[in-house]
Amino acid sequence: MKGQHFLLSVLLTSFQHTNGFISTGSSCHFGRSRALWNEMPAAASGTTSSEEKSTVSYNRASIKGVIFDIDGTLADSWKLGFDATQEVLVKNSIDKITEEIYHSHCVYCTPDRLARHAGLLPGDADFESVGERLGKEFDDLYVDLVSVETAGFYDEIETMLGRINPDVKLGALTNACVAYAHAVLQKNCPVYASEEENGNEEKKTAAGGLRPVYDRFSAIHGADDVPKPKPHPDGLHKCCEDM
User: Fold this and answer.
1) pTM, whole model, 2 decimals?
2) What angle do the packed helices 127-144 and 78-91 form, to 10 degrees?
3) To 5 degrees, how large is the angle CA 116–CA 25–CA 74?
4) CA 243, CA 233: separation in Å to the nearest integer?
5) Nearest Cα residue to 134 out of 106, 113, 114
6) What tens digit of pLDDT does each residue of 11-37 get?
């Protein structure tokens, strides 16, 4: 798909539809993601503001791609992130945080989030260096702990993905590292999980009715492989270019 099909809305409060693309964010909880495709018949519309009486239309036939967030949208993974964060903080003699603080700081990419957990703010001399160091420790721990138990898809997410027309491109964008996005999608893919279980490193074609969920995603990006993380639009632009 060409780069001109850009998603212009970045702060994703439910789901956005722009130039044939739909993007879902962590504020679009799993029930909303699961129902997303089912809510779109040949044409459907909803009022975005009763005061402004503005209407946005959603038509399956016009949709060229869907970009998903990972955590809290596809995968129930918050406890994995929270526990890994606590482990990194304790290792570095930094006070543990509450669940409320963890959730409120997930709007930041990993280095920024951990630097803030360490009591630093943008502009502080050590903000970037501390964030990068803690972020690397977190990523090294976090990615290796990904499994269907720690970061499994919400109920019916796989079914929902399977109902999306094969001609519609899928993308995934996270504020975690890109390796984490790949790990979550692979661990939740029946084909890849089966290959891993059988100790076969060579990628096979789907068999036995298994759907290659991971292969449906033609664009997968994280905060560490795009120019700027969310809420900047760079990652969305990159996904659209890939798709």
Assistant:
1) 0.75
2) 130
3) 105
4) 15
5) 114
6) 232 334 444 555 555 444 444 444 554
